[in-house]
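Justification of resources, computational component.

The compute hours requested in this renewal are based largely on the per-chain cost of generating structure records like the one below. Each record pairs the submitted sequence with a full structure-token output. That output is archived, and it is also reused by downstream analysis tasks.
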Amino acid sequence: MVCAGRTDAGVHARGQVAHADVGAGELDAVGGAARVLARLAGVLPEDVRVRAVVPAPDGFDARWSARARTYAYRVSDAPGGADPLVRSHVLHHTGRRGAALDLEAMNAAAAALLGEHDFAAYCRAREGASSLRTLVDLRWVREADSGLAVMWISADAFCHSMVRAVVGALLPVGDGRRAVAWPGEILAGGRRDPDADVAPARGLCLERVDYPEDADLAAQAARAKRFRGAE
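The structure output for this chain reads:
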């Protein structure tokens, strides 16, 4: 089985996409996609659910055909702490003396990370792996219903621990401990800053994986493999 994105231990995913290669006719032999979906619900643990099972179009690869991946990181800055019912999916982090995070400052700092950069300073180094990535979206918003501060981030792909490292650099801007320019300075430095923490895994969730039109799936996979190197 091949997944669209590999997450760190403790990270959540509700938009994961996976593919499995099966022989011609095997899906029909076991009762079709609907039957497979029902059987998976009966054997998977309660914290894993498959939403749909469909035959993949020609050229589809869950990982390499992906055009973009979108994650959300959720933070509660309520003075009294996060709602206990969502504590396993939300980080509690406040500003000075329990103040709300400054999302305007965090978004100003995030602007320096948008676009194509070498994110070596925000990645766990892996021999032979490229750390060149393109961030197409990076913004903090305040959810009206929950009051949570949520970072939305989208890129063609992410390095290991990259999203949590970005959160770890932006939170000190929001709580007033660091200047707006600090995350950009880390990026320009090209190496991990020991003063920049990697945010805990529990606040992070893979929300969505985007793919091109069916006719471009194989070509997208080939481009991705050439650019990042097939592993």
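The helical segments are 26-29, 32-43, 103-110, 162-174, 182-189, 217-228. The chain has a mean pLDDT of 91.
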